[in-house]
Amino acid sequence: MTPTTASSLTGTIEELRDRAVAEGRQLLLVAASLSNGPDIADVYGVRSLDDSTAEVVRRAQEHATVPCHLLRVSRLGGFLAAAVVDRDRSVSQLDLLVADMREMLEVRGERVWPIVTVAVRACHDDEDVWDAVRDARSTLVIAQRDTPGGTSWHHDSDEGLGSGLGLTLVRDLAVALTEQPDELHLAYQPVVDLRRGTTTGAEALLRWQHPTRGAVGPLVAVEAAERTGLIHPLGRLVLDRAVAQLAAWRGRVVPGFRMHVNVSPIELREASYADGMAAVLDRWDVPAPQLLLEITETALLADDPRVLRTITALHELGVGLGIDDFGTGYSSIRHLHRLPIDTVKVDRSLVSGIATSPADFALTRAVLGLLTTIGATVVAEGIEDAQQQAHLLAMGCTLGQGYHLGRPVTADALFAGSSWSRARATGMLGA
Ligand code: C2E
Ligand code: MG
Ligand code: MG
């Protein structure tokens, strides 16, 4: 099996397409992969995987009614081929071809069922064939993830794997982290004692001021960082700045004040995370209990032994652990119970309706009751008006966060409005 080179690939596909057009037929690009290739290599060896791939390719090339032209073979059982089919029968002809590719294989005298994942892209008469190659490839990557062993046709309306925007966003985030750290900064939102109006903590929230795009939302930046490994340097930057800020606030905050820092579960998978945390606390001479790490997905946490090891080490270090956005789907009381969690932040969605909907009120009261039963400190998120605050207080919730109590602001601005003036503004004087 000799793969053609990249340069001959262009000519070959274009020639095939021109031939198809001249005959009034259609060129299909067929990207395929042996999804159980890694298993075949593990059990029977890499050469057996090559042989298996060659056999699937041979079936395509020598197909009785729809012969394929092999364009390229990649490692671990992937290949790209082209077939010329009749326009009005393209789907049925492709099905015939693929059915043969999916027949039982014989590998070292044993029968092996090939899981052949196929992506198909029909070439238009007047387009750049390389666009079709790109689409076939990205459709295959998505199919391998979502529908292994199936056949996926690319549609022109399909989203690609990632837009060019995603690529440049990642590059720009890497540039910000390595060369322009001033583009990244933290805003701080107060966590407030709902009875007294005092600021008992602050949540550090990432802000990214991109030189041309302007402000990029933290969820966009964090998602891009999680996809690319940049979450590790990003998390380190956030942690270092937040702990440095805690050190700078020494003497200005109430006893027991805690800095909340959001952390991605992916960061917690790193074996060295807890050691890195100890080093940061040491560098700024900040006691571990002043820090509260907010984590979102409890399900992921409880099931991953690497994460559990990190969480245990952080707990031993004395760092507080909190669950963020509780009530949004990923968190469950059962998982909470298995983890050394001391704080639960009840999501805004559970707070927004309590003053207007009796059903929401009842639900939130029940959730708060459960959380209190397991001994968690509860912080209500997203309090937007005085009524919501009053209802939460009546339900026994004493800590909250939200635009009504204070928006995310710069470190200097956090204490500029005193807790006394906040208390007056929110009608809590004398409480
Ligand atoms: P989160 O941790 O749940 O943070 C609360 C979000 O709700 C913040 O959005 C905050 O500005 C917003 N918020 C606060 N009070 C209210 C309110 O009363 N009403 C409404 N509508 N919204 C309110 P933000 O700053 O856009 O952050 C979004 C999310 O991005 C955060 O949600 C967190 O999951 C993530 N994030 C932010 N900074 C970091 C970070 O440094 N690391 C990681 N891993 N994630 C971060
Ligand atoms: Mg948070
Ligand atoms: Mg939250």
From TrEMBL:
Q: Where is the EAL domain?
A: 166-422
Q: What InterPro entries does this protein map onto?
A: Cyclic-di-GMP_PDE-like, EAL_dom, EAL_sf
Q: Name one Pfam family in it.
A: EAL
Picking any one GO molecular function of the record gives: cyclic-guanylate-specific phosphodiesterase activity
Stated name of the protein: EAL domain, c-di-GMP-specific phosphodiesterase class I (Or its enzymatically inactive variant)
